[in-house]
Each structure stands twice: as structure tokens, then as C-alpha cells.
Amino acid sequence: MNKLPSYKLGPDLTVCRILNGMWQVAGGHGYIDHEKAIEDMLRYHDSGFTTWDLADIYGPAEDLIGEFRRRLLELRGKEELDRIQALTKWVPQPGKITRSAVIENIQRSLNRMNVNSIDLLQFHWWDYNNPYYMDALKYLADLRDNGMIKNIGLTNFDTERVQIMMDSDLPIVSNQIQYSIIDRRPEVKMIPFCQKHNICLFAYGSLCGGLMSDRYFKREKPTAAQLDTLSLRKYHQIIEKWGGWNLFQELLSNLKTIAQKYKVSIANIATRFILDSPAVAGVIIGTRLGIVDHRAGNAQVFNFRLERSDLDAIDAVCKKSNNLFEIIGDCGDEYR
Ligand SMILES: NC(=O)c1ccc[n+]([C@@H]2O[C@H](COP(=O)([O-])OP(=O)(O)OC[C@H]3O[C@@H](n4cnc5c(N)ncnc54)[C@H](OP(=O)(O)O)[C@@H]3O)[C@@H](O)[C@H]2O)c1
């Protein structure tokens, strides 16, 4: 099996620096054939992409992990099975949270994923006005102590709330947030905070759903019909807020020049830029399993490093954009 660069979050969790994102199996990204998806998961694994990002709410994602684990054990044995990391999320509806409800939900994920313990449970909460998220985290910390969960992470929490959790001594190891060359909000508060408190970040949206790639370079602004996946629509809106399609083309042009220098792709430059940022453990790249395969292309990320002049060329365009921190707010505020 191929080995790719990894990041150690703690004694029992080391991840591949490019994670396979499974939101794309949840619907709105084309028809996912489960058998083809499992076959693709085996190929990703063999290529060294051993870390999966999923959620209880990503349609069949947890079940696919369960089936993939059974298949891997059968075909390649226990040693290969032990190389997988499956990071799921718990996304409850805001409301009173009881210990038994937490146990019930985590047990359901364990069963679906066919694991005894969850490598990283990333917690999401929709409404800060509803204070029960702190109760949920305390119960999750208990489940970490009894072994149902190995590590607790967050997703889409802002710096103010993570500070509250640190003040309560909650054992948080990571936060998963939107972070790309165009969405630099994490650099304002979250990254300095994470550096100080030894928390890692997982970035998503770093390829803007595929818009930040060679495929869209020198292309007219896509029509609504051409934005045919949920992620393309989501990140097209971010581009509009950031500065619009013409400025985005100017950025793609600079990224293309840099990509040509290293004989890689625009997507590689977009990923490398985020991977090199402080506190970032990994970039999650969405995978449309059984439909499109970008394994070989994405592995190129590990074959070059960006120079200061490349970063300056990128920032020269970004300086012309709107300030998304002022427009949207801190990390995760787009969900609230
Ligand atoms: N916590 C949260 O709230 C949250 C929110 C969003 C996403 N996520 C996580 O992050 C993952 C990433 O999803 P995302 O929506 O942010 O998408 P993304 O990673 O920005 O974009 C994924 C798309 O980029 C294209 N792509 C991938 N590699 C490429 C390459 N080398 N060259 C050209 N194009 C390439 C593919 O498009 P094609 O398939 O069309 O080729 C792929 O579907 C999700 O699956 C999920 O795990 C989490």
C-alpha cells in the first residue's frame, strides 16, 4: 500500500493530510452506486488515502464505512483494516441533551460504522442561543473516558465558543471549518487561537466544490443549470460574496501560472496553500465515489512546496476582494 504524508493529532490518532470527504455521497452530487463506491474506497485506501470524513447526517456514509471495513478485512486482512481512520460527526437538533440520548446516538454511529470506538467524533451545533451544547460536550467527554470515542473534535464552531470550551477544560483536539484561498476567515481569530491552545484544524471547501480547478479556468460564469451539484452552488455563492466571477478568474489565472511552474494543477496549488497554513492538520477533499476519481491528481500535492513569491502573487489578487470576515463573520457563522 502507498504511504502519504500524515499528521499526528494525538497518541491514538494520525491522519492522512488529505482526507476523503463523504458529504458527496449524501445526495445532490449525482447517483452513488454503493458497490462502485466501495470498490473506489478500496482504491483510495490502496493509494494511501486512508482517512475518511463523514457524518451521521451524510446519508449512507456511516453504512458505507461499515461495509468498506468488512470488505477490507475480508480482502486484505486486519493489518490493512487498522490503517483506516473514520472521522464522523454528530449533528443533533438543538434542544435539551441527556446522557442517554448522547449514548444512543454514538452507539448508532458505532454500529453503522462497524467500529468499537470512534477515532474522532466531531460535534456540530446549530444554535448558540441554545446552551445545551456544553452539556452534550461534557457527556461526550465521559464517552471518551469510557472508550466509545477516542477523540473529540468540533465542526463549525467560532473562536468565542471554543474559548468557552477550553475554559471548561473540555478535551477538544480539532475544529473542522471552511478554509480556502478565497475564504481566509480562519486566519483572523481561529488559527492564532488554535496555535495557542494546540488545537488542529481540518479544512473543507478548499477547492470550492471543484470551481477552484483547471476545469473552470477561462470559463464564462456558470449558469444556474451548470452548477449541478450542491457543493458547486454553495461555493459559487461564496465566490459572489468574495468578489465575483471576474476577480475569481484573475485568481485562477495566477494559480495557473504557479501550477505550470511546478507542473501540477490549480487544485494542487489550492490544496497546498491551505495545508501549509499553521494549525492545519489536513484538507478534506470531497469524493464523488464511483463517479469521478481524483486520487492520482491529488497525490501530486505532496511533490512540491510553494515559495514566498507564489504566496505574494496569490495575495495580490486576494487583496482586491471583499472581507468575508466582515460580511459573514467568524468560522461557522455561515450556518447561523
Ligand atoms: N463540516 C461541514 O459543515 C462541512 C461542509 C462542507 C464539506 N464538509 C466536508 O468536506 C468535504 C469536502 O467537500 P466540499 O463540498 O467542501 O468540496 P471540495 O472539497 O471543495 O470540492 C470537491 C470537488 O472538487 C473536485 N475535485 C477534487 N479533486 C480535484 C482535482 N484534483 N482536480 C479538479 N477537481 C477536483 C471534485 O469535483 P468533481 O467530482 O465534479 O470532479 C470534487 O467533487 C465534504 O465531503 C465533507 O466531508 C464539511
Write the layout of secondary structure elements.
Blueprint: E1 6-10, E2 13-16, E3 18-21, H1 34-46, E4 51-53, H2 61-76, H3 78-81, E5 85-90, H4 99-113, E6 120-123, H5 133-145, E7 152-155, H6 159-167, E8 172-178, H7 190-197, E9 200-204, H8 230-242, H9 245-262, H10 266-275, E10 280-286, H11 295-299, H12 308-318, H13 324-327
Parallel strand pairs: 3-4, 3-10, 4-5, 5-6, 6-7, 7-8, 8-9, 9-10
Antiparallel strand pairs: 1-2
Helix pairs in contact: 1-2, 2-4, 9-10, 9-12
Task: Provide an overview of this structure.
By secondary structure, the protein is an alpha/beta fold. The protein has a single domain, classed as NADP-dependent oxidoreductase domain (TIM Barrel). 41% of the residues lie in helices and 15% in strands. Strands 3-4-5-6-7-8-9-10 form an 8-stranded parallel β-barrel, surrounded by 4 helices. Strands 1-2 form a two-stranded antiparallel sheet. The longest helix has 18 residues, at 245-262. It starts with 5 loop residues before the first strand and ends in a 9-residue tail after the last helix. The model has no long low-confidence stretch (mean pLDDT 97). NADP nicotinamide-adenine-dinucleotide phosphate binds next to strand 10 and helix 11.
